[in-house]
């Protein structure tokens, strides 16, 4: 099963080490939290676009029955804001 979507970070590998389930993901450089910390408050249009991107990625993941434990600004990586 591979979930591919422009609004999702790719999982490159997964494995079990003893009692630990591990995933290796592509490196994402700037989270939404980083962006706000660096540039301050977002314009409404940019905030709406970031939320739209997050929802699109979550929707794609949910189609493959992948559930995420939390969604917050540290785990969102908006593209091309």
Structure overview:
This protein is an alpha+beta fold and 81 residues long. It contains 2 helices and 2 strands; from the N terminus they run E-E-H-H. The chain has helices at 32-39, 44-63, and strands at 11-17, 20-25. A hairpin with a 2-residue loop joins strand 1 (11-17) and strand 2. It starts with 10 loop residues before the first strand and ends in an 18-residue tail after the last helix. 10% of the residues are buried. The mean pLDDT is 87.
Topology overview:
Layout: E1 11-17, E2 20-25, H1 32-39, H2 44-63
Antiparallel strand pairs: 1-2
Radius of gyration computed on alpha carbons? 14 Å
Strands of the biggest beta sheet: in what spatial order? 1-2
- The percent of residues in helical segments reads 25-40%
Order of helices and strands: EEHH
Q: Taking all residues together, what is the mean pLDDT? A: 87
**General shape:** globular
How many strands, what sense, and barrel or not for the largest sheet?
2 strands, antiparallel
What's the total count of β strands? 2
Question: What is the distance, rounded to the nearest whole angstrom, between the alpha carbons of the first and last residues?
Answer: 29 Å
Percent of residues in beta strands: 15-25%
Instruction: Assign the structural class, choosing from mainly alpha, mainly beta, alpha/beta, alpha+beta, or little secondary structure.
Output: alpha+beta
* Low-pLDDT runs: none
The helix tally amounts to 2
